[in-house]
Amino acid sequence: MQKVLHLDPAKCTGCLSCEMACSYENYGVFATSRSRIKVFDFHHTGRKVPYTCTQCDEAWCLHACPVEAITVDKVTGAKVVSEATCVGCKVCTIACPFGTINYVAETGKVQKCDLCGGQPACAEACPTGAITYIDANWTGLARMQQWADKLGNQSAPAAA
User: Fold this and answer.
1) Are residues 60 and 108 in the same domain?
2) What is d(CA 53, CA 99) in angstroms, rounded to the nearest whole number?
3) What keywords does the record list, in alphabetical order (predicted)?
4) With bands split at pLDDT 50, 70 and 90, how would you rate the model's confidence at 111?
5) How many domains does the chain have?
6) Shared-domain flag, residues 85 and 97
7) Whether 99 contacts 111, CB under 8 Å
8) What span, in angstroms and rounded, lies between the C-alpha atoms of 83 and 110?
């Protein structure tokens, strides 16, 4: 069963627990600047939105890498950057249409979400359930339930 990160912006409070957990998991420090997930703060609306690599099936980043530093993890399906192979050319950052691959000046390499080997620290740290790790086949379940509720998916009144 393939699993994916499911991000629900309506539940995000902007606490940055996900960013802190990610940086600690990957670098052993609590530094939001080192996180592979970001929480965007839309000041004009007051909304907070968590955002990270969506692990595209097509994976333009993987196909664009001239040294094949991005590979598919056979267990999680995550597109993973090999820091040892990466030459820091940044072609993958240009190829990603979502801007979720970041160049790290200190290392001269790129970083992106690798799903923490199947136990994403961001999802485990999120106190509101805005980030969950779910079966890929059910990413639209909450929307389907909302739509069903709008159409009358209510309990039938008891017969008299």
Assistant:
1) yes
2) 8
3) 4Fe-4S, Electron transport, Iron, Iron-sulfur, Metal-binding, Transport
4) very high
5) 2
6) yes
7) no
8) 8
DSSP line for 2-69: -EEEEE-GGG-----HHHHHHHHHHHSS--GGG-SSEEEEETTTTEEEEE-----SS-HHHHH-TT--
* Structural domain harbouring 138: 1-53+116-152
What pLDDT digit, counting tens, does each position of 115-143 carry?
999 999 999 999 999 999 998 776 666 66
Q: Which two tokens stand for residue 6?
A: 């499911």
Are residues 122 and 44 part of one domain?
yes
What are residue 91's phi and psi, to 5 degrees?
-60, -40
Answer yes or no: are the C-beta atoms of 100 and 82 closer than 8 Å. Answer: no
Token reading at 75 = 């267990």
Residue 144 confidence class, pLDDT cut points 50, 70, 90: low
- pLDDT tens readout for residues 20-51: 999 999 999 999 999 999 999 999 998 999 99
- Asked if residue 157 belongs to a domain, the reply is no
Q: Quick count: other Cβ atoms within 10 Å of Cβ 83?
A: 14
Per-residue DSSP letter, 140: T
